[in-house]
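To: structure subgroup
Subject: Chain for Friday's discussion

All,

I'm putting the inputs and outputs inline so they're searchable in the archive.
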Amino acid sequence: MVKKIVNGKLGKAYAFFYCSAPKADIEKVLPDARELAQVPNGLELTLREGIDLDNFKQDFQLVKLAQKAHEADNNYSITATLPYSTNKGTASNLVRVQNVLYASLQDKFHKDDAKFVGATIYRSGKGYSFME
């Protein structure tokens, strides 16, 4: 689905990550993580299990980054969109959600054995930048 914002911007960012928790556990804590991270209501997150390159085929550079994420054993991806935001601003909000998500997974389900590593990227100019 292609989203279009008339007279404004649509910020987009992507996260590729490894998480030891099952998708059902992530989905249970994601709404609370959004709230605790205090991100804008318009931030839309699409969580996918696995790195399916077809989801990123609209952009050759993005496919290459997704392929590298897959090769690094990342098992989830999140696509974030935020109307009237920059790509960097959307990525910043996505990172905030991910940080709270990790802490929530540890607290509620996995105590000290939760593993959560990955990268968040956004289009910047002609390429992609990593969010620190």
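Points worth raising on Friday:
Residues 24 and 114 are 14 Å apart (CA to CA).
The chain has one domain: 11-47+60-130.

D.
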